[in-house]
Design goal:
The protein folds into three domains: about 80 residues, Rossmann fold; about 60 residues, 2-Layer Sandwich (Dna Ligase, domain 1); about 170 residues, ATP-grasp fold, B domain (D-amino Acid Aminotransferase, Chain A, domain 1, 2-Layer Sandwich), CATH 3.30.470. Helix 1 links the parallel strand 1 and strand 2. Strands 9, 10, 11, 12, 13, 14, 15, 16 and 17 form a nine-stranded antiparallel β-sheet that branches. It is of the alpha+beta class and about 350 residues long. Helix content is about 25%, strand content about 30%. It is globular and about 60 Å long. It is built from ten helices and 17 strands. The structure holds adenosine-5'-diphosphate (ADP) and magnesium ion (MG). Adenosine-5'-diphosphate binds next to strand 9 and strand 14.
Length: about 350
């Protein structure tokens, strides 16, 4: 029986599902979160609240655990680096720092000869004026964005003048890809050339928030293979340990682009809980804790639907689901518009 205590920074649904996976493996989960009401409170062995730069609380956390992982990437690098002096942090803080910065991330991917959208760094409003060939485009903050937050579509030069945003932050302007489809690859890397990789997942966004995921993705064989090869190359190059997600765009000419890398378990992989012998969460815990690697087996095709805002209410009232339906309520305290409240996976 293992005696490992895993620290998890972040107490949202991803932290909850990591804690559930840890429990299954007899690993104790201690969550550190800045929100007293975070849902992961319901699923972990111990819950510590404090801001992500509260040294006293972080020391208390470090004393409780053997190693640390995290459920979201926007944790100050200094915090992860400081913790890493006392207990191992996996994925490594330097990986997190690279991937949480959209410019550094895209530069890294391009150096591997992997295609991304065209992009340019923007430091002030006037930088935008000579960039007609990047329009229509999307202006994004270089850090701290998620679920489409911090993103501003710009269709034409005319729209630049009316932009009312804070240029003390750094931005990146990306050319808009004429999307045919979006897919993601989830891969868990254990060590050199040892990884488990899930098949491509097809994703549909609404208002820049993920709404549906499904397997199998309807894509051609070339994209199927190329997306997997690129995800493996990225994970190996980062010497990554744990579960990583690569989000891709496919354009109308069937060109594949890496959109972004998430150094963590990912919403599009929720269906792995029911559709595979080992979920992305269990694989993450296995990899970071140095447990046995189990060959991945697909059990079923599946589709997942996110329940956003008050869409959850209907499902909370259902007494009995069909045998192929799996409903997850994240138990968030308040229902808010655009907030991911739960999901339902259907095996098909
Ligand atoms: P987030 O960090 O919020 O997930 P993304 O860069 O992944 O940010 O953007 C969210 C979604 O917005 C994407 O999944 C895609 O649907 C759309 N999007 C973002 N950038 C582009 C782009 N350059 N071209 C086309 N669609 C885009
Ligand atoms: Mg994204």
């Amino acid at each position: 029986m293992s005696e490992i205590t895993l620290g998890i920074i972040g107490g949202g649904q991803l932290g909850s599902m990591l804690a559930i996976a840890a429990k299954k493996l007899n690993i104790k989960a201690v969550i550190f979160c800045d929100d007293v009401n975070a849902p992961a409170k319901n699923f972990c062995n111990q819950f510590i609240t404090g801001s992500y730069d509260n040294q006293e609380k972080i020391s208390e956390f470090i004393n409780q655990i053997d190693l640390v992982t995290y459920e979201f990437e926007n944790i100050p690098f200094e915090t992860l680096n400081e913790i890493n002096k006392f207990k191992p942090v996996l994925p490594r803080p330097s990986v997190n720092r690279l991937v949480q910065h959209r410019l550094a991330e895209k530069d890294f991917v391009n150096k591997l000869n992997i295609r991304t959208t065209r992009y340019v760094s923007i430091e002030k409003k006037s930088d935008l004026e000579a960039l007609e060939d990047f329009l229509p485009g999307i202006l994004k903050t270089t850090t701290l964005g998620y679920d489409g937050k911090g993103q501003y579509p710009i269709n034409s030069r005319k729209e630049i003048n009316s932009l009312n945003i804070d240029f003390s932050k750094g931005y990146i302007l990306e050319k808009l890809v004429k999307l045919k489809k979006e897919i993601s690859i989830i891969i868990t890397r254990f060590s050199n050339n040892r990884y488990e990789i899930y098949e491509p997942i097809e994703n549909t966004h609404e208002d820049q928030i993920l709404k549906y995921s499904k397997i199998p993705a309807k894509i051609n064989e070339k994209i199927f293979n190329q997306s997997k090869d690129w995800a493996i190359l990225i994970a190996e190059e980062l010497k990554y340990v744990g579960t990583l997600c690569v989000e891709f765009f496919i354009d109308r000419n069937d060109n594949l682009y890496v959109n972004e890398i998430a150094p963590r378990v990912h919403n599009s992989g929720h269906l792995t809980i029911n559709a595979f012998n080992v979920s992305q969460f269990e694989n993450h815990v296995r990899a970071v804790c140095g447990l046995e690697q189990i060959p991945l087996k697909k059990l079923s095709n599946a589709k997942m639907m996110n329940l956003i805002g008050d869409q959850i209410t209907h499902y909370r009232n259902i007494q009995k689901f069909n045998d192929n339906e799996f409903f997850f309520d994240y138990l968030k305290k308040d229902i808010k518009e655009k907030r991911k409240m739960g999901h339902i996976t259907t095996l098909v």
